[in-house]
Design brief:
Elements lengths: L3 E3 L4 E6 L3 E7 L3 E7 L4 E7 L17 H14 L8 E6 L15 H15 L3 E7 L5 E6 L5 E4 L6 E2 L1
Parallel strand pairs: 1-3, 6-7
Antiparallel strand pairs: 2-5, 3-8, 4-5, 4-6, 8-9, 9-10
Helix pairs in contact: 1-2
């Protein structure tokens, strides 16, 4: 096994096999894992908000679905990914508050999931699988060697997507 590379909140990292990318504690944030199965170039984005155009302080590209996904693709291409082969797996976007709300500010998780999907579709990237929503946090690992997306949640069985 290679190096375990941590991705912080509003952060992104790319790697090649045999390294593993991990991000802790996805609540309403969404983890977008991108993978080229041939070159085994992998990328993981921990996005916090759906749309950079709605925010004044938006210099951090990784904070938003729109700019984060574009930047992740760009960095993967730099280390050898082929754009036409990149596929996506996504996790997170939990509704961390008990009340079901129509208030957009409380629907951050849901909006993050929608924005991640929209931006992946716009980028012609196929979403293979997702583990999103519900009301619990997730820690994820993307294994560059296999493309396995491992999801850990407190009190839940380990999932490999």
């Amino acid at each position: 096994m290679g190096e375990m590379i941590k991705v912080g909140m509003a952060d992104l990292q790319v790697c090649k096999s045999p390294d593993v990318l991990t991000t802790l504690g996805l609540g309403s944030c969404v983890g977008v894992a991108l993978y080229d199965p041939i070159t085994k170039v992998s990328g993981l984005l921990h996005l916090m908000l759906p749309d950079s155009t709605k925010i004044r302080n938006n210099e951090n590209l990784a904070k938003f679905a729109d700019t984060g996904i574009q930047e992740l693709i760009r960095q993967m291409l730099l280390i050898g990914a082929n754009r036409s082969r990149i596929v996506a797996k996504i996790a997170g976007g939990a509704q961390m508050f008990a009340m079901k709300s129509t208030n957009d500010l409380l629907r951050v998780g849901e909006r993050n999931i929608e924005a991640a999907k929209e931006n992946l579709i716009k980028s012609n990237i196929r979403i293979m699988v997702e583990d999103t929503g519900y009301n619990y946090g997730r820690t994820v690992e993307l294994h560059a060697e296999t493309g396995n997306f491992v999801i850990k949640s407190v009190g839940k069985p380990l999932k490999t997507l």
